[in-house]
Amino acid sequence: MRPLDEKETSAVFEKLFKFVGNNLKNIVENPSHEGPDSNPGRYCFRLHKNRVFYASESLVKRATNVARPNLASLGTCIGKYTHGGSFHLTVQALNLLAANAKHKVWLKPQSEMSFLYGNHVLKSALGRITDNISAGDGVVVFSMADVPLGFGVAAKSTQDCRKLDPNGIVVLHQADVGEYLRMEDEL
Fold this sequence. Notes:
By secondary structure, the protein is an alpha+beta fold. The chain has seven helices and twelve strands. The protein folds into two domains: 94 residues, Nuclear Transport Factor 2, Chain: A (Roll), CATH 3.10.450; 81 residues, PUA domain (Archaeosine Trna-guanine Transglycosylase, Chain: A, domain 4), CATH 2.30.130.10. The strands form two sheets. Strands 1, 2, 3, 4, 5 and 6 form a six-stranded antiparallel sheet that branches.
C-alpha cells in the first residue's frame, strides 16, 4: 500500500472530475471522524495491488501494522488500474459519486432491471434528466426513488435527448449495483 504518484493521481482525479465536476473538492477535503483523535482527520487515496482505495488517514496509519501480502482491502475501493495502465472506476465508487454527482439521470421503474442487467439506458427508460449534460459527460443513474443504481457516460446531450427516438441510447453503461451479484468473484 502506497500513496499515488503524480501520474496516477491525475488519472484518478480526471476520472472523478468527469462525474463530480467541481465537487471533487468535497471528496478531497472531506473530514474523517474515525479513530481515537478528537480532531477530524482527512481522507486520502492509496494504491494497493493495482486498486485505488479511498480511506481515512487514521485507518491508513493502523493498516501499516499489517503486512502487504496479508492486506486484502482498505477503506473503499473506488477503481483499479488495468494492465495497460488506464484507470477504471468500479461500482464500489457509486456512493462517493452519487453524493457529489454533477449530472444525474433517473430511470422509470419498469426500466431499472434492464440497466441492472448491464444494458445501456434508452430514451424510453428516462424518467428525468438534469440540464446541461453534454455528450461524453459522466452521469450517475438513479431510480425514481433517488436510489443510486450505477453510472455511465452520456451518449447524447440533454437537448439531443429531446429529439431522439425512443430506442436511442442516452447513457452508455459503465457500472451498476447488479455487478455485486454478476461478478462477485472479481470484486
